[in-house]
Amino acid sequence: MEAIAGIILQNLNTLAQEEFGIIWNLKDDVEQMKSTVSAIKAVLLDAEAKANNLQISNWMEELKDVLYDADDLLDDLSTEALKRKLMRGNKILRDVQIFFSHSNQIVYGSKLGHEIKAIQKRLDVIAKNKITLQLTDRPMETPISYREQRQTYSFVSKDEVIGREDENELLKSYLLDTNVTDNVSVVPIVGIGGLGKTTLAQLVYNDHAVQRRFQQKMWVCVSDEFDIKKIAQKMMGNDKNSEIEQVQQHLRSMIQGKKYLLVLDDVWNEDRELWLKLKSLIMEGGKGSMIIVTTRSRTVANIMGTHPPLFLKGLDLERSWKLFSQVAFDGGKEPNDRELLAIGRDIVKKCAGVPLAIRVIGSLLYSRNLGRSDWLYFKEVEFSKIDQEKDKIFAILKLSYDHLPSFLKNCFAYCSLFPKGFEFDKKTLIQLWVAEGFIQPSNDIRYEENVGHEYFMNLLSMSLFQDVTIDDYGDISTCKMHDLIHDLAQIVVGKEYATVEGIKENIGNRTRYLSSRTTLHFADTSSSSCTLRTLLVLGQKRFESNNFDRSHFRFLLSIKCLRVLTLCGLDIITIPKSIKVLKHLRYLDLSRNHFLVNLPPELTSLYNLQTLKLSQCFKLKKLPSDMNESLRHLELNDCGELTCMPSGLGQLTNLQTLTHFLLDCGGRRGNISELRGLNSLTGKLEIRWLDSLREHAAVVESSKVLVEKQHLQELELRWWNDGKEISEWPSWWGGGIAEPHLQEKENKRWLEDEKILEGLQPHDSIKKIVIDGYCGKTLPDWIGNLWSLKSLEIRNCIDLISLPEGIRNLSLQRLYIYNCSPVLETRCATINGEDWPKIAHIPAVLVWKGGSPLSTKRGSPERPMTP
């Protein structure tokens, strides 16, 4: 609640500073609301600490309702103000002038005044009751600053396998047994939650000897629902809506005769018949195929196992202390404080050898940077409460949550909307937090996404996230939640969050964040659905009508307070113009709607929209022009029929994500200068159809539109690729003489492309560059000055004959060359060639032509990319 109270105060301050007619006569009301909300906000921490008191709990529920209503009202007002400002700048039409006429403002202001006074009246009652409840002021919380020197994401896997050496070797001996006679064997790993069953399975699954042993390796997180079709689809890596008959045929075909390793993680099903049905699909693997099952249930192990179960026990005290030390002390080094160490050992004993509990409590003590007296308080006060709990391990995990600042509690609770085993994309999760208003206002000029990154790292350092994956540049890409931590998130969220099989009438009146994991069952609009701020459709099943029709949208458009709407893979064909009524919307994900052709111009009436995701909308042809400056993230991956960018894109100076920039506007020259002002872009940018700029190559050369984009990490520059093979290239490559007019044309193209590439110099912090279809003979010298460049990929550059001199001064980790000129390929493929000594320091070099490599050098990729 502290977060939403902060948002309200921020909006009230903004409104107080605005000079426009709508609120000129409401300033006293605004100031009074600021004063009341500030007084209430001051006691929120005290109220949360006393939430076990029923009266205080009810007081907090009433406060939440009025705060959310106030937030919606103020957001509505700020949206109207923004609309008015933008329309004035665009020379408003007559109907707009009427809307903002003096008489209209009086009516709107009068209505608004009544609504503000009604909310103020409710706030006054709540403020009066806080005195009756004897709630006291507490200072505001500040974010926990995680310690940079601590590489949380790398030590987790090592910590969790402390003391599991014997189990690891036993499990590997089963998998590597050459005397096995069964086609498929099943090894269960059994233990209570938090003992490290999944981590042990991961350790073995990723072992080099095990990887070499099996032809096919599959990992399926099963969790609560033992759905045979879903398990089979996950094994194949395919979520298409096929019938079970097709699924089982494809699965059998995929594994037949192949020695495979399958991990079924977190199995709860104790129905033997369901296991036998799945078993009938997967028993046709090659001799020596193995299945590892992780489960908390001995019954599951008895039903599924062909080997004796491997029972995990808690760590002994020595190993428990070793794990705790690694997590709770800098560098795992024990401090020279005997009393502190003695307190720590007593705390570790309470964790009963459960690695997850040890990591969580150790991370809590570390992150707070607490002294001896604080550790003693944890031991004598906090753990005395835990001793009274039936499930002590879960109580320890909750202790970590209880000590989170309120703004981190919101971010943590939000993760409950996603299923167990869900792989969170870090950037997406942060975008959702921003859209929900969970990020506290920062005193500096940082974007909210940067603050969100700190929030993420705080939760990670507290061991509330795990199984982190790292991208090529050492940044965190994805993470997961342990099942017990996910259970904790679902328990602490209360009535505000709900996860359902479909939208029904029984959604609680106080439910504001909703996810549906399978299909949607649309009902008539009910008052309970009108409070929703988030609707996430996470399931794979299709609607009964096979597409998203008007009746579905009628329901959605009645939920006027929505901030986040995710409708992925639902066969949506059209978006109605009436979507403009969702004026609070910040986040809209329409990805994987393969038949969506157009977006309505009314989408630009969503003045608060920050994130628009349209990836894999294969049929999408056009984007609305003049999108609003509020837009920060625009994702367009795999939009194959999209041929141009919307006009006005260059005005979106807050844009941080733009996956693609297209230059060919239906035969008209695209405007590369639109990129000039987009200096907040991060991540990856792909620019296509650069050949359309050849007639204006000199202008591009001098423009330098990319050089100030210091936050970009990847840049892909693509000319038109007509798919020609080397055999189709001009005869003069083979030594013949081209006709003069053709050679003159080729020479002009070389010069134009070299000028274009010269003008596309990125900031020297760029980490990866892909150059595809370029027709110049040489690469520009600026490539040799990109001190951060790690990967250079050159594709289909049929005229390129040399690499720049400066490449030998770079710290490149990969150099890939695909389908380029015979001259360049020969030089790079020959050990004694002219260019090879210059790039001998690069760890991975791959020269690739057609279907086979000409030459590889150290660390070539497992799955080489083809042109």
TrEMBL record:
<dbReference type="Pfam" id="PF23559">
    <property type="entry name" value="WHD_DRP"/>
</dbReference>
<keyword id="KW-0433">Leucine-rich repeat</keyword>
<dbReference type="InterPro" id="IPR032675">
    <property type="entry name" value="LRR_dom_sf"/>
</dbReference>
<keyword id="KW-0611">Plant defense</keyword>
<dbReference type="Pfam" id="PF25019">
    <property type="entry name" value="LRR_R13L1-DRL21"/>
</dbReference>
<dbReference type="InterPro" id="IPR058922">
    <property type="entry name" value="WHD_DRP"/>
</dbReference>
<dbReference type="InterPro" id="IPR036388">
    <property type="entry name" value="WH-like_DNA-bd_sf"/>
</dbReference>
<protein>
    <submittedName>
        <fullName>Disease resistance protein RGA4</fullName>
        <ecNumber>4.6.1.1</ecNumber>
    </submittedName>
</protein>
<dbReference type="InterPro" id="IPR056789">
    <property type="entry name" value="LRR_R13L1-DRL21"/>
</dbReference>
<dbReference type="GO" id="GO:0004016">
    <property type="term" value="F:adenylate cyclase activity"/>
</dbReference>
<dbReference type="InterPro" id="IPR041118">
    <property type="entry name" value="Rx_N"/>
</dbReference>
<dbReference type="Pfam" id="PF00931">
    <property type="entry name" value="NB-ARC"/>
</dbReference>
<dbReference type="InterPro" id="IPR027417">
    <property type="entry name" value="P-loop_NTPase"/>
</dbReference>
<keyword id="KW-0456">Lyase</keyword>
<feature type="domain" description="R13L1/DRL21-like LRR repeat region">
    <location>
        <begin position="672"/>
        <end position="820"/>
    </location>
</feature>
<keyword id="KW-0677">Repeat</keyword>
<dbReference type="InterPro" id="IPR002182">
    <property type="entry name" value="NB-ARC"/>
</dbReference>
<dbReference type="InterPro" id="IPR042197">
    <property type="entry name" value="Apaf_helical"/>
</dbReference>
<dbReference type="GO" id="GO:0051707">
    <property type="term" value="P:response to other organism"/>
</dbReference>
<feature type="domain" description="NB-ARC">
    <location>
        <begin position="181"/>
        <end position="330"/>
    </location>
</feature>
<dbReference type="Pfam" id="PF18052">
    <property type="entry name" value="Rx_N"/>
</dbReference>
<feature type="domain" description="Disease resistance N-terminal">
    <location>
        <begin position="6"/>
        <end position="90"/>
    </location>
</feature>
<dbReference type="GO" id="GO:0005524">
    <property type="term" value="F:ATP binding"/>
</dbReference>
<dbReference type="GO" id="GO:0006952">
    <property type="term" value="P:defense response"/>
</dbReference>
<keyword id="KW-0547">Nucleotide-binding</keyword>
<feature type="domain" description="Disease resistance protein winged helix">
    <location>
        <begin position="417"/>
        <end position="489"/>
    </location>
</feature>
<keyword id="KW-0067">ATP-binding</keyword>
<dbReference type="GO" id="GO:0043531">
    <property type="term" value="F:ADP binding"/>
</dbReference>
